[in-house]
What we know:
The structure holds two protein chains of two kinds. Chain A is built from 18 helices and 34 strands. By secondary structure, chain A is an alpha/beta fold. Chain A has a five-stranded parallel beta sheet, with helices on one face. A five-stranded parallel beta sheet of chain A has the order 20-27-21-22-23. In chain A, a hairpin with a 2-residue loop joins strand 11 (about 215-225) and strand 12. In chain A, helix 6 runs parallel beside helix 15 (about 555-575) and helix 12 runs parallel beside helix 13 (about 440-450). The longest helix of chain A is centred in the last third of the chain and has 21 residues, at about 555-575. The radius of gyration of chain A is 32 Å and the shape is globular. Chain B folds into two domains: about 1-110 and about 155-200, Rossmann fold, CATH 3.40.50; about 205-310, no CATH class. By secondary structure, chain B is an alpha/beta fold. At the A-B interface, helix 16 of A face helix 5 and helix 11 of B.
Amino acid sequence: xxxxxxxxxxxxxxxxxxxxxxxxxxxxxxxxxxxxxxxxxxxxxxxxxxxxxxxxxxxxxxxxxxxxxxxxxxxxxxxxxxxxxxxxxxxxxxxxxxxxxxxxxxxxxxxxxxxxxxxxxxxxxxxxxxxxxxxxxxxxxxxxxxxxxxxxxxxxxxxxxxxxxxxxxxxxxxxxxxxxxxxxxxxxxxxxxxxxxxxxxxxxxxxxxxxxxxxxxxxxxxxxxxxxxxxxxxxxxxxxxxxxxxxxxxxxxxxxxxxxxxxxxxxxxxxxxxxxxxxxxxxxxxxxxxxxxxxxxxxxxxxxxxxxxxxxxxxxxxxxxxxxxxxxxxxxxxxxxxxxxxxxxxxxxxxxxxxxxxxxxxxxxxxxxxxxxxxxxxxxxxxxxxxxxxxxxxxxxxxxxxxxxxxxxxxxxxxxxxxxxxxxxxxxxxxxxxxxxxxxxxxxxxxxxxxxxxxxxxxxxxxxxxxxxxxxxxxxxxxxxxxxxxxxxxxxxxxxxxxxxxxxxxxxxxxxxxxxxxxxxxxxxxxxxxxxxxxxxxxxxxxxxxxxxxxxxxxxxxxxxxxxxxxxxxxxxxxxxxxxxxxxxxxxxxxxxxxxxxxxxxxxxxxxxxxxxxxxxxxxxxxxxxxxxxxxxxxxxxxxxxxxxxxxxxxxxxxxxxxxxxxxxxxxxxxxx
Amino acid sequence: xxxxxxxxxxxxxxxxxxxxxxxxxxxxxxxxxxxxxxxxxxxxxxxxxxxxxxxxxxxxxxxxxxxxxxxxxxxxxxxxxxxxxxxxxxxxxxxxxxxxxxxxxxxxxxxxxxxxxxxxxxxxxxxxxxxxxxxxxxxxxxxxxxxxxxxxxxxxxxxxxxxxxxxxxxxxxxxxxxxxxxxxxxxxxxxxxxxxxxxxxxxxxxxxxxxxxxxxxxxxxxxxxxxxxxxxxxxxxxxxxxxxxxxxxxxxxxxxxxxxxxxxxxxxxxxxxxxxxxxxxxxxxxxxxxxxxxxxxxxxxxxxxxxxxxxxxxxxxxxxxxxxxxxxxxxxxxxxxxxxxxxxx
Lengths: 673, 345
């Protein structure tokens, strides 16, 4: 049966009709293109009336194929597929020609634009004749969710889901949940104490019936697909039996080995070899650091074991593996702080009284190593002047081009803490002060009133080499003050470097493990930067918090909640539809050359050793076409993008060449020589 | 069948012809050994210029469709070859593009990178062995005292058989393996033919027949065959040799890889693949182990000095592009032979 094609040319108001002669295009298509039985132009095809037009023609004109020439498929392909379905046509018997983005917006000449629109439509019509009916497949969604990373974003997501009645596995790499927020003292701009607002949420997590907390654990392998992920994770040995430990802390008290705490205290304080990162840690069970434990070093000591009232210490404990089945995954793996030694001219690591922002957070914390006193590295002297250097590693083409988003506000907070607790003068060396959220600009005003000094300019150097008696024994901040247009040397006692937020060191490996992508900087990429910020291109894997990009606590919390809402949507629907635009392997053609095996960004291709062929797991395939293009034996076909369809589209695009001036009279038959 | 019965011997008629080819296909036909006698039993061989005397005028006298089977090897480079192709098409019930030249253009097709003028310049003037003080070039017509002499016209572009006339079947290979020739002849004799337009052969690639172990591929450096002595058990491509076995239709039994030499693709693309070279290139490009554009360029430039010769050695004339661009000769378009559009698959 010959196909009956309907062509619809959208005016898009004047967006298309202003440049393309849409009536002429529609008339041309009806008169010239094979298979076209109806061609219409319409003001707004995406309006309900426009869609109705398609539906009516399918019913009355018996259309078997539909082409809409309008904006881009990214915008309205789904809309028109639905319109086709409403008319009783398989939605994949539809093709879109982008005559707005590819024609009217980028072509000035009316005649040229009109001609181009005709050719694109010819391509679409020829292609649509070769379309096949496709049906989405349906898979059930497991109600369990795994959340990776238990900082504030992950905690929020876990609590939202658990409170809604859904079971959650919350996986945390460190011995305690809490993330970076647990290290902070105050939070900007309201200055409420970080612990006061965080620790109740942490204990909620601990006590929640629907949350299974898997701390000190890491995900090793993820397989499966949306609704049906299978996860293998390693639970690292704590050397403390969680079932018998009461968290009394006697072991910590009795442990004779004291080491510098490089993680939680940022190197400013000490912990024992058996430790809890901080008193309110969740879970409460301590962990033995085998690298500093005397027993693991020399085979004797066992003080903790001797004093433990419940016999919970187990030196023989091994890492154990766990397997989970979950329907959705939320990644909230957070950030790391820029290593300030990478900018040697700022002196961190060489000049004692240059501190990182995290060190200062710990110093300002009442529960921290100095009990909240702001002092120099010697631990006693109060500084008389403090410099805060912004954009250390951020907005810097040598390190990170992006703005880390939180440092301006954190710097203002630090300024406030210094002014509140000491007599010191505070200088902020900034490029631009960025305070775009609610209450932030007001906080900036407040600091200006409190007497913080603001010097606009990127700091060139921090040195202890004095040039005048006034600079002796001081750290001198060398900077061009761009507001007064002069070089300045500002002598201070203490410098705080506002280091950039960076992706975790293993962000790229994690992305590969979970089948999602990273930006060039290493942040996880969301499905759409504006309209789908917590989903990823891998269905069922969501991202929240700073693993997606630098953001503050309210932003992280909002994303955690948003990701939870998306997961709840999946769970309450119960099943998901899987797009039928996927690749498949014709196993009779596959010779098992294994070219495709390593290419799939979604790990959807398995090599079957026994059969000597490769196979695609349909539910994992996103139809990207990478393997289709690479397959040298033509064994892989991309549904909806097969060679026949693409060649037909190209021939349609070359309609002009093939049908008019390209036509050739049949060659005369040569005579025998 | 009725015509076969009508012939005096009661046997079918067989014609074999060669156009732009090396002659290897003819030898391959004899490679079926004593089975050639069975062929002779089944067919009257009425025309086979390579091995027996015959005249074009005799073929012209055969009624249309009077030949049951014609095995045509070689591409179409001259007007004479085109004439013969058209003649044999008209006279034959079944026309088989026999071997790589007729199927894909093969080595003679690589001359499509040059124009006729460039080919003549090299062949009649530039090569060290040319002795042509008067600079004579072949002319279609030459007047001599005795009259006018004719030579076939030499075309700009070598075309494959199916770019010239409709072809019923293709038998790939340079040359086709005797076993595959026999398989095809058996199929024809027993009337067990695939649908017209098919390539008679396997539908998978040489890797299927290759005994080497294969892994996921990540290639940091391409090597030429003289640069390494490859490990005999591992996939040659994984060792950096451009082995076309991944893209080449099976049928030879992986002859080259068996002797530690990479497949060069003479059996053409697998079933359903349009452009062998494009297929190879996208596969090879997919497994280069680098994300750095400069490094990738270096890997390709150092390891693949002759991309067309490497990836289109046998298939340039039959590729989507068909030839290099012709300088200053019209619109550069290759004429489409409307009735020759019988594509494989």
